[in-house]
């Protein structure tokens, strides 16, 4: 783990604040002054700030029902509201993956970097399920277009499963996770205005969790 991220996990400092500590010669690793901002902390390392030992805080895992208007990041000068504001301030956590500002639904927050990697990395191919609400009617012919895949900048985009609930409500399942992928796929077939809610990440379902609320979960609830 990069040193500034490690310090952020162990303390109330932000990553930027951690960088400043290093620049001011206030951080030691194994009792040696650290000046490398890119240093990767090993399990055996002893990290101190101004001579005081720091250790990782205990891991926590939250499932959050993100409302519209919240940005899925820990820091953004241009964001009015951050998803991290919906959970306890300490220990500090970060969102696992993205859920764009205009979308609602399930997002996981944690301070466990290894768990986050397991959820996000494409090689694990974890499923995510969404409910899409369209402004104009959605027909079987539209479903056919999506089933054939949509060419995006990153490559061919596919849904693993598409089911029409009614003419304005569609359920999709996918394991790809490109930026705003669902919105871009629907836009490509003429649906520029959609409502999007994520209802499942692998085994974890949104269930009855209300918008803006969170619940404590375990890694085994997800994978």
Q: Specify the overall morphology.
A: elongated
Strand content: 25-35%
Structural class: alpha+beta
Low-confidence runs: none
Mean pLDDT: 93
Multimeric organization? single chain
Give the radius of gyration.
Answer: 20 Å
From the 3D structure, determine the CATH topology of the largest domain: Alpha-Beta Plaits
- Kindly provide the name of the CATH class of the largest domain: Alpha Beta
The CATH H-level superfamily of the largest domain is Pseudouridine synthase I, catalytic domain, N-terminal subdomain
Helical percent range?
Answer: 10-25%
In short:
With 223 residues, the protein is of the alpha+beta class. It has helices spanning 3-10, 15-23, 113-120, 140-147, 181-188; strands at residues 27-29, 32-33, 47-49, 52-53, 61-66, 70-71, 81-82, 94-96, 104-110, 128-134, 150-152, 155-157, 161-166, 169-174, 194-201, 204-205, 214-216. Strands 5, 8, 9, 10, 13, 14, 15, 16 and 17 form a 9-stranded mixed sheet that branches. A 4-stranded antiparallel sheet has the order 2-1-3-4, with no helix packed on it.
């Amino acid at each position: 783990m990069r040193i500034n991220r490690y310090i952020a996990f162990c303390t109330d400092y932000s990553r930027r604040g951690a960088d400043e500590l290093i620049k001011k010669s206030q951080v030691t690793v194994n009792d040696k002054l650290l000046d490398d901002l890119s240093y990767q902390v090993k399990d055996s390392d002893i990290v101190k700030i101004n001579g005081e030992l720091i250790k990782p805080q205990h891991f926590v895992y939250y499932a959050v029902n993100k409302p519209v208007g919240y940005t899925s990041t820990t820091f953004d000068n241009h964001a009015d509201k951050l998803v991290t504001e919906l959970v306890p301030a300490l220990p500090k956590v970060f969102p696992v993956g993205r859920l764009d500002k205009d979308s609602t639904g399930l997002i996981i927050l944690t301070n466990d970097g290894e768990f986050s990697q397991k959820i996000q990395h494409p090689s694990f191919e974890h499923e995510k399920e969404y409910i899409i609400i369209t402004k104009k009617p959605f027909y079987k012919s539209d479903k056919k277009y999506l089933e054939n895949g949509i060419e995006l900048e990153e490559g061919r985009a596919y849904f693993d499963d598409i089911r029409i609930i009614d003419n304005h409500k569609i359920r999709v399942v996918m394991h790809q996770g490109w930026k705003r992928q669902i919105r871009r796929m629907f836009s490509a077939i003429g649906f520029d205005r959609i409502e999007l809610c994520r209802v499942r990440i692998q085994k974890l379902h949104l269930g009855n969790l209300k918008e803006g609320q969170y619940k404590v979960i375990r890694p085994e609830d997800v994978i």
